[in-house]
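User: Quick sanity check before I run a bigger batch. Here is a single chain. Can you write out its predicted 3D structure?
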Amino acid sequence: MEYEEKTKEQEIQDAREYAENIVDTVHQPLIVLDENLRIVSASRSFYEIFKVKPKETEKQLIYDLGNGQWNIPKLRELLEDILPKTTSFDNFEVEHDFLDIGKRIMLLNARQIYQKTNRTKLILIAIEDITEPKKILDGLHEKIGELEISLRTAEGKNHTIAGLKGMINELEKRLLRKRG
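Assistant: Done. Predicted structure follows.
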């Protein structure tokens, strides 16, 4: 009996280490919250990107993280309104200006995880920073708009030039008739 308990404990420990290694391998920042929205753990990339440390992060209410920087209305909406009604959410866009890293536009994906063994709920949040791609897309849309205006202006000029050529040809014909 004791051997079976130790084996089960070892299996649980192995599964935990396995999951932690996966989380730390992923490039996207990940956060695991308990059902009270306190941070259970976060990925290495989360700590690096958001410039926070595990000691000041873990066991903190997410809204208190980084001196309240994560007290974001849209994040509250996700965690307090949307997730309790559903078990997951994808591509929830959040825009926020962080003190250490500046303005960021992020897509959040969240999943509720129910742990049967201790009957607790966890929330896994994956964060994708889309600030740079969004800037590039906005710049492309702006350039497309400029090109469309230039094209319309050029087409307008072509019509004007064609109209002027027609008037010159008409005047030339009149002048030639008068001479002839």
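The first strand starts at residue 30 and ends at 34.

User: Great, the batch can go ahead then.
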